[in-house]
Amino acid sequence: MGKVYSVSVTRDGKWWTIAVPELDALTQARRIDDVPTMAKELIALETGVALAEVDIDQSIQLEPGGEDLAVRVADIKAQRARVTEEEVRVKAAAQEFAKKLASAQVPVRDIGSLLGVTFQRASQLVNS
Length: 128
Hints:
Blueprint: E1 4-12, E2 15-20, E3 25-29, H1 35-47, E4 55-61, H2 69-103, H3 108-115, H4 119-127
Parallel strand pairs: 1-4
Antiparallel strand pairs: 1-2, 2-3
Helix pairs in contact: 2-3, 2-4, 3-4
């Protein structure tokens, strides 16, 4: 890995302005997904370093000096991951419980009512 450059990204109208303060260089991107590529290409052009050797650490704000959106995005992604893990646990628990109820001869419609799911979903849980 090469040197890591700090990149500051701010919203400017319909564009994202990309600043590399260390090089006193600017570029822009239309979409946030394009920012890393545009920043790395700018750094490679300005320094003469191979593109593959350029690494960036970017902060994203709606306005200069504003909240770092990357921090919020990382937090939301972490929350989503935790929710996904919990959904897996809840599904397994519901499936286990539905099978237990079915083995005790509880009708699938009643299993659905107890679990707060449709008859069809209860049937899937029992038969999966």
